[in-house]
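Sequence of Gustatory receptor (Nephila pilipes).
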Amino acid sequence: MSDSFNITDDPFLIMKKIVFLFGLDMGSNIRGLRTWDSKLRSLYPKFVALLWICFLVKSIATFLISDIGSQENITSKVSRTLNIVIAFSVWVMLITKRKNIFRLFKDIHALGVDLNVQLTSPILYIGVVTTLAVPLVAWLCRTLPMQDHDCKRAVKYYSFHTLSVLNCKPWYFIALFDAFFSYIVRTFLAVIYTILCWALRRILNSHSTGKSDMVRNLSLSYNPHSFEHYLVKNESIIQVLKYFEKTMSLPIFLIEVSDLSEMFLGLTYWNSNIHITLKNSWVKRYSIGTCFSAVRAFVFFLCVSLAAASIHEGSEKCKEVQETILKNALYSKSMVNTRDIIHLLILHQTPTFKLSASGFFYFTKGLVLSAIGSALTYSLFIIQQVDDYKS
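Predicted 3D structure, token representation.
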């Protein structure tokens, strides 16, 4: 990709800055900073990494010590622990793939500049607010409904039955720590994936509609220079799409699994709340946070799936434009470059581009309903089996 664009106008700059919050420094230049700033910038990611390791060890220990012996159904225990492991795995992937993600930002920005596509939008700021708001709301859902005796139970659970508290203040700090690390990275990845899909869809639309002078002119009549330029831009878009798929495929698969797991967990909690007695009413208050997680998972699953499916739709529109351009070139009376015609013909005959979740499934609109339907069906089946066992 070309580097001839103004970095100061980078529309993704705000997203690059926010990732530093959870210990990821995307291409920041620290050479011009003062010494203490440089040390702080280098130490902070190590401190966050230590917190992540503590969070994972704490979560696994909680599962082994507190969960295994509890009366809660095994599906809920495994689903909750699975989401924590996924959150840690996604953070590790962001660390290892940070250069790839930075390159994605750069390449998509360059495509936007080359094709004169405006990528600056309020959706970027909405994404930042969402990334920060979701952990905060999750924390509030876990703390506001709780009473003092509820907090005592929760602190005992998270401290392996070693701590006893008199009020909810210790629980507020524990819940904040747990909510931040459980949600911040998963939310960010879902948000940035949706935003990048939105940007790529706008680029595809510009490359396949009358908004582009080049495409509009080629759709009306054949021009050899515009034709060759169109092929070059088309190759650039395909390269970026393939790199996007290669970089984000596995992380987004984990995110989708996590969202489906949280939806399932929310349904099982909703069913269990119906049978909760007054003695165990603290479980109902605590499960408000779980219900919020299920709603969040449903919304994010829809956003990610529909955003990824829009790439498939944009690719289909490009095929239609390629067919029109190909016909104009073949019927043109001017000299036609056979090599370029064959090139476009090959592009037109290749399958439409689909984003996938690590190859396990491909994002189309049909996937959304089938995936949600499968999650609901499986959840209802498990709920029915649990109810039959209890009765």
